[in-house]
Amino acid sequence: MMKHGVVAILVAVCLLPLRLLAAEPLTLGEAMALAVERNPDIQVARGEERISHNRVNIGNAGLLPTVSLAGTATWQDNERASQTSSGTFSEFTSNSAQVKASYTLFDGFGNIYTFRKLKSGGRLGSLQARNDIEAVLLELSDAYYRTAKASEDLTIAREALDISDERLRRARLRAEYGQSNTVELLSAEVDANSDSIAVRNARLEYSSASRALNTLLDRDVDTPLELSPEVAFDETLTFEKIMEQARAAFAGYLIALEQVRQAGYDHAIARSDYFPEFDLQFSYGYSSTAEGFDIGLDDSSESMSASLSMNYPIFSGWKRSIARQNARIATQNSELLARKAELELERLVADTWEAYQNSLGNLEFQQTALKTAELNFERTGELYKLGQVTTTSFREAQINLVQARRDRAQARYDARMFELRLLRLAGMLVISM
Question: What Gene Ontology terms describe what this protein does at the molecular function level (predicted)?
Fold first, then answer.
């Protein structure tokens, strides 16, 4: 997977159909596919990945020769003694053109380790890009379900207001016919006003959540949204499966392991300074000298040279020793951080799994509580119409129903977000969509 970079990881998402017509709900998978194409943070992450891969070149490691073209033209106006009886002024122009090439034959394998470090840097760039993209997609998922929850809350609030408005209408009719007292009418008005405020607040929350989601999708913040409230859970997930795949695929942990390799290559590069360096130089060119001002290579002479040089620093003020010691310490530090990252990963998987199981249990409980609240409201409503329960009891049943519906929706989306966090830890967040 890492050989082909983040783009290959995202193919499954990008192939999802984008049904963005207003009449069709936007699913989470479609929102992710749209974000992959348009979200600025994701585009930056993919650009940084391309930069890291562009650096993986043998030329950047010094494994290719350097070739340069040099040319000079020098004009001189010199007064000199002439062998004739009168003095003369002579002008001379010296011209040369050369092709020079140099190549490091051996530098203690420093260039070899440098190239390996560059390749490791390419892998590290892909991991960091994937980690950043997954973070954005997780943020997008949270914004998506926050908007879906706000939409449900708005629907619930409106339905509660409809019930209160109907109750107020009935109270006014009863008051007109002298069948209810003032307290009952005032209570109905207070409850209707309270539910009106709840609708306004729910509408405000929905607007804010919608703008946040549209921002992550990089489109106009007021673009209308219709989301799919359906939530399906993966019943095949197990703790052992998540833990095993997290060690093999979680980008945050793999970054720590790759940094250990990077530190090891730095240590090897530092050791290479203790070896002599052999360089090969070659030049080929033309040169000429002409009287007067004459830029050109007429009547030029050809020259060619080659040399092999060896350089071995005997003493560098302990710079090599200090660099090697620091590289060794950096390697040890990276290994300690990798071990810490492994423990953090195990803790994170365990905590998230436990929270996921707890949220599924809460969801089951909330679904049962909702059925109870619906049944209680239905029976209380029938008794209220018959005048056998007070308005207080009816209002309490209504509030319990509204709260149960909200709690069930919150539990459903909470469980889904914990599942998405588990999928990210297992490296399956994108491909699961």
Answer: efflux transmembrane transporter activity; porin activity
